[in-house]
Write a sequence for this structure.
């Protein structure tokens, strides 16, 4: 019998790519989203598969979710639905608590109730804070500096506690700077590459906050979807927290040099003051996930950025790892 997996936040940026990976690997998928920040258009490819069931629902609604668990007896859950904006978590700490902590607990308890063994949780590199040694390793003492990071960390702790108490196979994945198609460029706090791509494509100048020498560990959504899929479906996993990153730090100025080649007639970038609270360098150590899942990011940054900026990175989930 084909196994069914639940993906929450399915219509989001990472969610929709993860759904496609699972469908390409012949799994049944039930995708839930309330479309608060996700978009139904992201699921166009998924909707064409008979193995995909779309459910418009709020994951915070435990009664609705319980019915889904009862009906499908999921083999595993990929829990991505969240309040995704760090600035919003400052403005709305109660909503952040509800979406990024209380709901994770509720989904985990439903897994226990319906004997769904595996729960893969979307955590964040934000849990490290800005003072952790580079590259960030999972054993570092986390120093969350936002309500968002605090909730993600607390959710990890709850899940690992349930793993120790009840045998739940909880895998917490700490995503670094994920980029790729379908990332919404709509807010000033959107991922920098979604904003830059949008502006370069529109012939508009980009704004660099600071001197452009800050670095990030940019990981392609295609690789992140594969990490999610492997964590959800591989037979043997080790319950823990894992970085999802490339291990390579790239500066914004290096990023701009690639855009310059792709858009030679673009207006020059404007440099303004650094953002308050901005982290100077962020880079993860990828070895732990590599040891557990044989996972290694496969998209070289230059290639991923070119594909994003000039097209081509759409349906790549057919390639098996
Ligand atoms: C990432 C996450 C955030 C949180 C944080 C933890 C994203 C989108 N955000 O924030 O959720 O986990 O890491 O540390 O992944 N920038 C510009 N111009 C622009 C936009 C951004 O110069 O138009 C700069 C920005 O000041 C920063 C860098 O680009 O230095 C990356 O910004 P970001 O918002 O993409 O991601 P980050 O690392 O601040």
């Amino acid at each position: 019998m084909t196994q069914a997996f639940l993906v929450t936040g399915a219509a989001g940026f990472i969610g929709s790519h993860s759904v496609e990976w699972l469908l390409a690997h012949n799994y049944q998928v039930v995708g839930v989203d309330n479309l608060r920040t996700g978009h139904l258009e992201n699921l166009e490819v998924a909707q064409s598969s008979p193995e995909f069931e779309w459910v418009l629902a709020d994951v915070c609604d435990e009664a609705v979710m319980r019915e889904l668990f009862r009906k499908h007896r999921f083999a595993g859950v990929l829990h991505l639905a969240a309040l995704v904006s760090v600035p919003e978590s400052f403005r709305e700490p109660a909503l952040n608590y509800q979406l990024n902590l209380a709901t994770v607990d509720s989904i985990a308890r439903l897994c226990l109730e319906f004997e769904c063994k595996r729960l893969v949780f979307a955590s964040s590199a934000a849990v490290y804070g800005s003072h952790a040694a580079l590259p960030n390793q999972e054993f570092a003492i986390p120093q969350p500096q936002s309500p968002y990071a605090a909730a993600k960390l607390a959710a990890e702790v709850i899940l690992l506690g349930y793993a120790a108490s009840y045998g739940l196979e909880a895998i917490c994945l700490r995503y670094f700077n994920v980029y790729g198609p379908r990332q919404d460029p709509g807010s000033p706090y959107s991922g920098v590459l979604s904003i830059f791509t949008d502006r370069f494509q529109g012939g508009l100048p980009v704004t660099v906050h600071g001197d452009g020498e800050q670095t990030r560990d940019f990981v392609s959504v295609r690789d992140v979807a594969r990490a999610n899929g492997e964590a959800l479906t591989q037979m043997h996993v080790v319950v823990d927290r894992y970085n999802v990153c490339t291990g390579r730090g790239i500066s914004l100025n290096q990023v701009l040099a690639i855009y310059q080649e792709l858009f030679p007639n673009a207006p020059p970038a404007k440099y303004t003051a650094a953002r308050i609270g901005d982290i100077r360098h962020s880079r993860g150590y990828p070895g732990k996930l590599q040891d557990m899942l044989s996972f290694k990011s496969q998209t070289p940054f230059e290639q991923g950025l070119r594909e994003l900026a000039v097209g081509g990175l759409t349906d790549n989930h057919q390639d098996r790892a």
About this structure: The two ends are 23 Å apart (CA to CA). The mean pLDDT is 95.
